[in-house]
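User: Fold this, then the next.

Assistant: Folding the first:
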Amino acid sequence: MSAAPVTITITGAGGQIGYALLFRIASGAMLGPETPMRLNLLEIPQGLRAAEGAALELQDSAFPLLARVEVFDDAAAAFRGANHALLVGARARTAGMERGDLLGANAGIFGPQGAAINAEAADDIRVTVVGNPANTNALIAAAHAPDVPPERFSALTRLDHNRALGQLAPVLGTPVSDIRNLTIWGNHSATQFPDVAHATAGERRVPELLAERLGGAEAARTWLTEEFIPRGAKRGAEIIEGRGSSSVASAASATIDHVRDWGHGTSRGWTSAALVSDGSYGVPEGLISSFPVESVDGAWRVVQGLELDDFARQRIEASVAELIDEREAVRALGVL
């Protein structure tokens, strides 16, 4: 066990996703069983009591890896010395709210948090944005942290990735663990593109397996375009309809997966994460877009050289166009 605990700051720690995250992090599921940690829980004043209650439960759980837990309502104090920042808290869209209003409200959250990270976080800080709209919230936070290398910012599309794996596995008749190299492209929104063209299950290509299981290549294409892609895009709404609230445990689990792979490396093919684009696959530089990624030596790298057919390019371009629209809306607010 390392001598110096790692400091992890979680925003929105009193909320449902925060609550689902805290105990798994403290158990070692995210950073491993040999890494002690300090947890900084950041909340707005209205959420402090919930965060304080969670802190008491963490203490009562007597996790061997948990060196300390503190609750803050001041971003500068909460991010001081942070090695990992999980930006979970965000303004949700309410009835009658226009997209520009939503982006403006979140700019008021993620801009100051980015500035606090820039001023206070440790030199090795890694920032994972979970709160929606995650891609553009990450763009805002990164813009306010000019001294932090852009590659230290990422947004969560691992939930979309995991959802796609969960949909594929029963249709293929294979365990989720056998599926490799699926990709989520673009925005964490209804325009996302879950791409199975390069995915494999065991030693077989997924498109070939789908054709076998569904009665031919045309039937497989129909299933992908009319069921698989739309259901992934609307999965959040499906969960709300079923349980009466949005995804919580699955979002927390995906966050754990994302940060674990970022630090410890991807060992079973690539995964999906939203990163600051370097221009790969025609995505404009500076946008935060989801790509196929591998983690090597603690850094995300975009998988290069994948061939994209016309259908894939059209879907990716549509999602990237939405990201550009969001960026321009934020620029119009004077945030970037």
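Now the next one, as you asked:
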Amino acid sequence: MSGGFRSRAAGRRQTATQQRRAVDAPKSAAGRGEVREKRASIGDPAREVAWEVLYRVAEDNAFANLVLPKLLRERRIKGRDAAFATELTYGALRSLGVLDAVIADCSSRPLDRIAPEVLAALRLGTYQLLYTRVEPHAAVDTSVSLVEAAGQPKATGFANGILRTISRTPAQQWMDRLAPAEPLANLAFRTAHPEWIARSFARVLGEGELEHALAADSERPIVHLVARPGEISAEELALITGGEEGRYSPYAVYLPEGDPGQLEPVCDGLAAVQDEGSQLIARAAATVPVEDDRGRWLDLCAGPGGKAALMGSLAAIDGAHVDAIEISEHRAELIRKAVRGLPVTVRTADGRDPGLEPGYDRVLVDAPCSGLGALRRRPEARWTKSEGDIAGLNTLQSELLASAIRMAKPGGVIVYSTCSPDARETREIVDAALSAGGVEELDARQFVGGMDNVGAGPAVQMWPHRHGTDAMFLAVLRKIG
């Protein structure tokens, strides 16, 4: 995957000595597998873990937000070392496009011809040189040591030459030198985003607010907890955890720091980690007024189960029942764990044809999407996603919404949501459903707990820089009887 991060600067020349000492990337999957089993050990646990996560993300398509906490626990890295490892890992992944442009400008060969373990060390070192206060000699020396410890001793001179070249030019000069001239592309580069994502956001926000939105993607989000209705109140959860009650969801608690998995209410199933925007969507699905609600509720795309669990908690209070549909058996098992003890039946099926009797009072379609609204939580995602993915998702999103409308009873409510602000996945999908007939759109703004500045309506678009939530989209439809 490392070739996917190549910039237009790839291929510029370095010294002949550095050319001779560079090491090609492994040519076979077997070679990559052999390297993957090695651990780069230099007596610096924070940098070792950061290097390993960067390597796994590039070579194995791993999720950093899953791999990093696991490695920190396994190696018992805590305190300042854990904080440093987290900063290096997430910072480097967020900035990959910039880092690769700088590395490529100094390299004698394209990035996809640099061994992946060497490239991971170069990215780690370049991030420290451009974005942190780490002394240049420490950033260079430790990165070169990682190259050698990873089994690439012949590449140490190559890595040393690149990093020392980078260190001789201030970060701002690198930005000025490599940033495109066109204004929006320039802003995308300086905020470490692919240009297509910046353009996607600009179509919804306008360019005046764009820089704030892009900058918010690089801010580490605080943890949002959800207090399970009927089990514990947000006020009680805040007192127990030392957190702060949320602004919009009546179940939300903000936790500025700490490991939520170690909290007693979370361990006991009284609370869980859930973005406040997701809480508002699940709550809307359960509380939008429906005439003659007989308690048949449906979550059509329920994995991994957060919204299904909140709907299930509210269903338990109202005497209702939720059918939760998930096409993946693995994710269906995650839902079962999340909804244990709640009036929720998990079914493994395709939401486009779930095989259930129509006539549901409430249907939630939290559709699979690009995830552009959660880039804060998946720092590498902005560089692994492609604009070409959206067209295929649009077809699926439209089919799922059409299925939800079929499954709803006349007068029933359909809530459509995505964790993306891209208009192709949000407004355009809803408009197509409205054009097909059979549904009308309600004003969703009245169902988000007093949240303002959510767009012109009737749908709601949340933003990290405005609301502190993921960039969730919410539309509410009613089936015409």
